[in-house]
Amino acid sequence: MNHMLYVKHLTLRGGETGFSLIELLITMIITSIAFFGLAMPFIAERSSWGSGKRLSEAQRDAQMITRAIARVARESNDYSFPINNPGHVKITFATPCGNLSFEGGESFNNGQLHRLDECVSPTGTAVLIDGVRSRVSEFAPTTIVAKKLVRIRLNIAHKNISSFTNEPERNEILNTDIFLRNNAT
User: Residues 76-86: pLDDT tens digits?
Assistant: First the structure.
C-alpha cells in the first residue's frame, strides 16, 4: 500500500493561498511572548549597569577629593576648621605660599565642594563637586586628639537624573573618612 502525504493549502475566494487571520494573530502572540521574555534580562542588566556606573562615579569623586585633601595636607604646616554651620564647612591649610581651603557641605550651594587657592592671584577656585549629579551630603571634620588628629567625614551622593535614563531616580551614597595628623607637638 502506497501512502502519500498530501498538504492541502487554504484556498481563498480567488483561488489564492495564504494565512488566515487567526493564524496571523497566534503567530503575533507567540512572537510577543518570546520577545518580552527575552527582553526582561536585558532591562534588568541595564538597571544593574546604571547602578554600578553611579557608584563608580561617586567613588571617583570621593577619591579625587581625598587625594586633593591628602596632597594639600602633606604640603601644609597647619590646618584649621572653624565650624559655624555644620552644613557648610571650610577647612584651611597653611602652606608656605599661602592658604589652601576646601569649602563645602550639604547647605553650601546645593551640596557643592570648592577648592580655594590663595597661592595664586587672584584667588583660584576649582569646583570639585558641582551639586548637580554629585553632591556633598556630609563634610564634617571632628577633632579626635586636640591639635594632633582630625577625622574628616565625607559623604557624596550621586544620583541619576530620570530625564537621562528610563529608570527611576536613585542615589548612590559613598562614605569616606580622612584622618589628618598635625605635625605640631
Answer: 877 788 777 77
- How far apart are the C-alpha atoms of 26 and 36, rounded to whole Å? 16
Taking the C-alpha atoms of residue 104 and residue 107, their distance in angstroms, rounded to an integer, is: 8
Contact criterion met (CB below 8 Å) for 138 and 173: no
Q: Which three cell numbers, joined as nine digits, stand for 172?
A: 548612590
CA distance 137 to 152: 13
Q: Extract the C-alpha cell encoding 80.
A: 584649621
DSSP code of residue 108? S
Residue type, 77: N
Name the range with the highest mean pLDDT among 20-29, 145-154, 163-172.
Answer: 20-29
C-alpha dihedral (59, 61, 62, 64), degrees to nearest 10: 120
- pLDDT, one tens digit per residue, over 16-39 is 566 788 888 999 999 999 888 888
SS3 (DSSP) at 90: strand
CA angle centred on 70, ends 66 and 71, rounded to 5°: 120
CB of 94 closer than 8 Å to CB of 78: yes
Please state the pTM of the whole predicted model. 0.62
Sign of the alpha-carbon torsion through 133, 134, 138, 141: negative
Domain ranges of the chain: 28-181
Which residue's entry shows cell 576648621? 81
